[in-house]
Amino acid sequence: MPKLRIAKEFTFDAAHYLPDYHGKCERMHGHTYKLRVIVEGPVKKDGLVMDFMEIKKIVNERVVDKLDHSTINDTIKVASAENMCVWVWKQLKPKIRGLAEVRIWETANSFAIYTGK
Prior knowledge:
Blueprint: E1 3-16, E2 29-42, H1 52-67, H2 81-92, E3 99-107, E4 110-114
Antiparallel strand pairs: 1-2, 2-3, 3-4
């Protein structure tokens, strides 16, 4: 069976601040974040790498429901997009076999990528 990558995207609204940053972002501010979760694996007999609905359930329970309309610094001390990616990976890796990549957009053209390496 061929290996493929599939992706599911999510959005959530949250506030954060960067305590060790010197500039406007050191103060509390908010974003509409975009999260992309990429899963890699063989296409199984059912024709799927993983059911999109299962990805949605896991990501909502373990990530979106915890961060949406929150102050992210209450969960991730230094709530940069980079640290958020690592945190999201740690939340999802035990539940999503074949997790290949996590991307978080802070703005439409600024994002971080983590592949667990």
